[in-house]
Amino acid sequence: MRLTVGHLKGGTGKTTTAVHLALGLARQGRTLLVDADPDQDGALAWSQEAADWPADRCIVIEAADRHLARQLRPMLIDYAHVVIDVGPKNPNLLTQAMSLSEHLVVPLRPTGADLAAVERVFELAAEADALSPLTAALLLVDVDSRWKSAGEARAWAEQQEIPTMTAHVRHLIEFAVSRGTAPEDLGDYETVLTELIEES
Question: What b/e string do you get for 145-164 counting C-beta neighbours within 10 Å, with b at 16 or more?
Answer without folding.
Answer: eeeebbeebbebbeeeebeb
